[in-house]
Amino acid sequence: MTQTKPGSILPNLFRYQLTWLATILGAAHGKSDLGAFIGFLMVVLHFKRCHHLLAEYKTVFSTLLIGGLWELFLVQQDLVVYQGLSPITIVPVWILILWAAFGATLNGCLGWFKDHLGWSVVFGALGGPLAWYGGAALGALSLPNPPLGYGVLAVGWAVMMPLLSFLARYFTLNSEFIDQEVGRGR
Fold this sequence. Notes:
Blueprint: H1 9-28, H2 32-48, H3 53-76, E1 81-82, H4 93-103, H5 117-137, E2 141-142, H6 146-183
Antiparallel strand pairs: 1-2
Helix pairs in contact: 1-2, 1-4, 2-4, 3-4, 3-6, 5-6
């Protein structure tokens, strides 16, 4: 069983919620660069507080990569339209920062799901679309065909949440094993 460091859950949740609000409201109000910058600072602050830094880098980068590919799919299939796109990007920077911040929760406030992958499917299927609904309600994005868009989001998140939780667990356990071996002088 992987354990989340005591006392780290609430600060981790606060950093993610601040990132979510900054990026969503920034995009909705034409200040996506400011929202992305605030989110970036929250991710950097997260790294400064990590116990297994290499595992955390791998978890956040994997989440960013998988999330970025997911966003590319959503945009290319016209399932979602984002505010704050620059002329040279297909996926806005602010949503990528939000994915990095989400990755930072997988060993923090969402760490429980690493040992409960079944519940992560349920959480993903419900929480993913709800986050997009909130973003749409605040004006950061729109779904041209809401029933189809939310359905695809539910299925995608039902797959991604356990996958990302599994990767976080794998990277953390691997890091803990290396720490134990180094401690034994091997």
